[in-house]
Design a protein that fits this description.
Two copies of one chain form a homodimer. The first copy, chain A, is an alpha/beta fold. The first copy, chain A, has three domains: 1-45, Single alpha-helices involved in coiled-coils or other helix-helix interfaces (Up-down Bundle); 47-260, Rossmann fold, CATH 3.40.50.300; 275-323, no CATH class. Helix content of chain A is 46%, strand content 12%. Chain A has helices at residues 5-13, 17-27, 35-44, 64-75, 127-140, 154-160, 184-189, 203-217, 243-258, 264-290, 292-302, 312-323; strands at 52-58, 81-86, 113-118, 145-150, 166-171, 192-195, 231-233. In chain A, helix 1 crosses helix 2 (17-27). At the A-B interface, helix 3, helix 5, helix 6, helix 7 and helix 10 of A face helix 3, helix 5, helix 6, helix 7 and helix 10 of B.
């Protein structure tokens, strides 16, 4: 039995890491008996508006974990920092091939740091909603900086912008068409670009990459009025060389406080609205999947060769018609 | 007014490219008045089991368009080839930053080649379903080889494996952790790997990339019994040097014909089942989005600050409860 939610939350607020880990385990539970306890927890989780939610995105191989390891190592000297990493399971067998825990070895055991891979399991599946709950839990525990690391591709990258206040994009120095593949929506969401692993590349290539981002940004309006998206260089070879990126992060949150039209709370309210819509759709879909008639009809498809010869749209309409 | 569907299909079968283009424009239409005509077309579109559906995937920058340009140039000397490129619109403003039409200039005007970017618009949205309809249209027109180019990230990459018979993955030579970011599900779906742009890389790096794929494949069972996934080198600098990849493609389809347990039709039937499930969910979801009560409640969120303070799961459940 999970002890009373109220007690757990109190312990979490007092900095009890075991209670925090237990709450994470709870929200990842798929056991029916935990269903109501999770809902009770959700009902009591309120956001902490003092926190700073920072997404770290970028192509695979950009060095996100290494970067976080370095920045957080320096930041944690004065602040409590949580790191959540989102690693969406593959459709077939779950999980990416390489883990990244070993890349955060300098911060894994720090008193001020809490690291948790964001599971995609749990009743309230959907990475976005689950990560949001994870953020709220870390906020209860008084973590001031919350980093959300994403694999940086496809839908996950798009939804993470609805979870954070500040969106950092890690790019590698690359000549030529380096921007190919970065969607316009992502370009708009980026609040700062970090050209990473600069120690490994030629000064010319780095400069050309910077210029390319600079030029692209000149065509795109920032979500945050008056904020010019900084493009900075970073190498994660030396520990504690993160002064520049930390200054940018702090400057951004100061900017949010003085900017009258785009304050953090308004932006967060918009993000929550997005999550509500997202999750409402999911509950609605679950109703279909749990429907016995639907299940029967899908089952019947298994043994029918006709499915290969009639257009799926036609067949789908027939299934829905038979339900209603 | 769109002329009678039956006539259009007849013209398409006789090789009338204008009729084919018109049918594509029809299925991309978002006009309500075209709704029934599209359904009528879908009802008459039957797959052609002689065709070869080939997906080309890989990270942005891997050179997919250039590769297709080269392979199709050689293939089209003897065969009719269609190229469909899937470019999922970004969430916010649609479209990637760079187009790729210029990279297929050698094949754009060939008699035997039909190129069409796969729109994500249309009533029957969802890239997978739309692309499937596009494939069927090309099959009506007698295209023997149908290439489906994807941006190779996230959901699109996962769904494209349900549209093709043969899945080609383009990789760049890369030392170290080059496999990072390729999901296990994709590794399983891959039928052959092409190490691309080999002219630009050192022999050692190419060999190490090949070995890495080879090792990974040794842990993964092929979907197609008896098919060992070839890992081949390719450079798209010289035109008409595609003999090796074309041999692999042909060998694969011959393999499917002699393999008793995994024939093409069985696999296609499975894929269509997947599309039916996918589209049934979409129709179901559209019912929610069209619901007036739902729309009202989402509208009400706009002006409420409470949404920022209560967990989205709790708020979503309230919305669904109020509907039913």
């Amino acid at each position: 039995m999970f002890e009373h939610i109220h007690n757990t939350l109190e312990k979490i607020k007092q900095g009890d890491r075991r209670a925090l880990s237990k709450a994470f385990t709870l929200i990842e539970s798929t056991s029916v008996s935990d269903h109501n306890t999770i809902l009770e927890l959700f009902a009591q989780l309120k956001p902490n508006n003092q926190s700073k939610r920072i997404a770290i995105s970028g192509v695979p191989g950009a060095g996100k974990s290494t970067f976080i390891n370095h920045v957080v190592h320096q930041l944690a000297q004065k602040h409590k920092v949580a790191v959540l990493s989102i690693d969406p399971a593959s459709e077939r067998s779950g999980g990416s091939i390489l883990g990244d825990k070993t890349r955060m070895q300098d911060i894994a055991n720090l008193e001020n740091v809490f690291i948790r891979p964001s599971s995609t399991r749990g009743f309230y599946g959907g990475i976005a909603v689950h990560t949001y709950s994870s953020i709220l839990l870390c906020e209860q525990a008084g973590y001031e900086y919350i980093f959300i690391e994403t694999v940086g591709v496809g839908q996950t990258e798009i939804s993470v912008q609805h979870l954070c206040d500040f969106f950092v994009y890690l790019a590698l120095p690359k000549a030529g068409d380096a921007l190919q593949g970065i969607k316009k929506g992502i370009m708009e969401a980026i609040d700062t670009v970090v050209i990473h692993k600069t120690d490994l590349y030629d000064e010319k290539v780095i400069l050309s990459t910077k210029n390319m981002f600079k030029e692209s940004f000149s065509f795109i309006q920032s979500k945050h009025k008056g904020w010019t998206k900084p493009i900075i260089e970073h190498s994660s070879v030396q520990i504690d060389n993160s002064t520049q990126i930390i200054s940018v992060i702090k400057a951004f949150f100061e900017h949010l406080q003085v900017s009258p039209s785009h304050d953090k709370i308004k932006n967060r309210a918009l993000n929550v609205k997005h999550l509500i819509e997202h999750f409402t759709k999911q509950i609605w879909l679950d109703k279909l999947l749990a429907n016995k008639h639907y299940q029967d009809q899908i089952q019947r498809l298994e043994n029918s060769d006709a499915k290969a010869f009639y257009h799926p749209v036609i067949q789908a309409y027939k299934i829905i018609e038979a339900l209603t």
